[in-house]
C-alpha cells in the first residue's frame, strides 16, 4: 500500500480522528493534546498520525482493522517510533509491531509521590539563556530522544525563560540541570542529570521550590532498567502507579 501523508488544519484533522474513533477502534495509541505540526494518512478504517522530532517521527495509530494497519506500518519509510502507554499487558501491540519489523527499545514506568518531603531551602541557580547549549549537549549526550521525550529547542528555551530549569554549578562549570513543570498542585519532574557527584542536590532544590508553592504531589517517568534512580525515588517515598510507556522503533531507508 502506498502511504502518502498530508497536512490539514487542526479542525479538519480532529474531524477525521473523531470519525475513526466513532467506529470503535480495536487498537489505538492516540493520546495527543496538540495537533500542531502533525500530518496523517487515512483509510476508511484507520488513521495514522505522525510528527517529526529531531531526525525521527512519532507515530500514532487509530484502527478498526489490524490486518490493514499491519500493511501500512510495514510500508512506512524513515525512522519511526511508536509509543504504547498502558497498564497491563500489550500482547496485541507486541504481535502487530513484531510482524511489522519494530523493535522494543525502552520501557518507562510512571512514579508518583503524593506527599513529597519539602526541601529546606533553595540554594541552586536558575538556568539562563547562555546555558541553553550546554544543557542541550548534556541532555542529548545522556538521554535518548525517542524514549525520554526530550523537549525541543523551542520548548527548552521557553522553559529556561520561565525559570523551569535549575542548574548545579561547580568550579564555574555547569555540572547538572533539572527541568520541572508546575501543574496546579502537582509538579512534573521532566528531566534530571548531574555529573557533579552530588546528584540529590538538584532534586532537593526542586523540592524546596515545591515548598514555596505549597505543592506536595510530584510525578515523573523512570527507565524501568535504571535500578539506581528507581531506588533513590523509592527511598524518598515515590511509588509506581502501574502505567508504563513502551517505545518501539523501526528504521527503513
Outline of the structure:
It is built from eight helices and twelve strands.
Indicate the proportion of strand residues: 35-45%
The class by helix and strand makeup works out as alpha+beta
Largest sheet: 12 strands, mixed
In helices, the fraction of residues equals 25-40%
N to C succession of SSEs:
HEEEEHEHEEHHHEEEHEHE
Question: Oligomer, anyone?
Answer: single chain
Q: How large is the count of helical segments? A: 8
Q: What's the Cα radius of gyration?
A: 20 Å
Distance between the termini: 17 Å
General shape:
elongated
Number of domains: 2
State the total count of DSSP E strands. Answer: 12
Low-pLDDT runs of 5+ residues are none
Average pLDDT rating: 94
Description:
With 253 residues, the protein is α+β, with helices and mostly antiparallel strands. The chain folds into 2 domains: 10-103 and 247-252; 117-215, Aminopeptidase, CATH 3.40.630.30. Helices cover 30% and strands 36% of the residues. The chain is built from 8 helices and 12 strands. The chain has helices spanning 10-21, 66-74, 91-99, 132-142, 145-148, 153-161, 200-212, 227-235, and strands spanning 27-28, 39-42, 46-53, 56-63, 78-86, 103-113, 125-126, 165-170, 173-183, 186-194, 217-223, 239-252. Strands 1, 2, 3, 4, 5, 6, 7, 8, 9, 10, 11 and 12 form a 12-stranded mixed β-sheet that branches. A hairpin with a 3-residue loop joins strand 2 and strand 3 (46-53). The longest helix is centred in the last third of the chain and has 13 residues, at 200-212. The chain is elongated.
Amino acid at each position: 500500500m502506498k502511504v502518502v501523508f498530508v497536512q490539514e488544519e487542526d479542525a479538519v484533522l480532529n474531524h477525521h480522528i473523531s470519525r475513526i474513533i466513532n467506529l470503535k477502534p480495536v487498537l489505538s495509541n492516540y493520546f495527543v493534546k496538540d495537533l500542531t505540526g502533525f500530518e496523517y494518512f487515512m483509510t476508511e478504517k484507520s488513521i495514522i498520525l505522525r510528527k517529526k522530532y529531531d531526525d525521527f517521527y512519532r507515530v500514532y495509530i487509530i484502527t478498526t482493522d489490524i490486518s490493514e494497519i499491519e500493511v501500512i506500518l510495514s510500508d512506512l519509510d524513515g525512522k519511526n517510533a511508536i509509543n504504547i502507554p498502558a497498564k497491563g499487558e500489550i500482547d496485541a501491540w507486541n504481535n502487530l509491531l513484531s510482524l511489522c519489523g519494530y523493535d522494543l527499545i525502552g520501557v518507562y514506568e510512571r512514579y508518583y509521590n503524593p506527599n513529597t518531603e519539602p526541601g529546606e531551602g533553595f540554594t541552586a541557580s536558575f538556568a539562563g539563556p547562555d546555558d541553553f547549549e550546554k544543557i542541550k549537549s548534556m541532555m542529548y549526550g545522556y538521554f535518548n530522544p525517542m524514549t525520554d521525550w526530550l523537549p525541543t529547542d523551542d520548548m527548552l528555551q521557553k522553559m529556561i525563560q520561565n525559570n523551569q530549569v535549575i542548574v548545579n554549578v561547580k568550579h564555574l562549570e555547569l555540572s547538572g540541570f533539572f527541568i520541572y513543570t508546575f501543574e496546579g498542585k502537582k509538579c512534573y519532574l521532566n528531566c534530571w542529570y548531574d555529573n557533579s557527584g552530588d546528584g540529590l542536590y538538584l532534586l532537593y532544590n526542586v523540592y524546596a521550590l515545591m515548598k514555596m508553592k505549597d505543592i506536595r504531589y510530584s510525578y515523573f517517568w523512570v527507565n524501568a532498567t535504571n535500578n539506581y534512580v528507581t531506588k533513590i525515588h523509592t527511598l524518598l517515598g515515590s511509588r509506581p502507579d502501574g502505567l508504563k510507556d513502551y517505545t518501539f522503533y523501526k528504521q527503513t531507508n
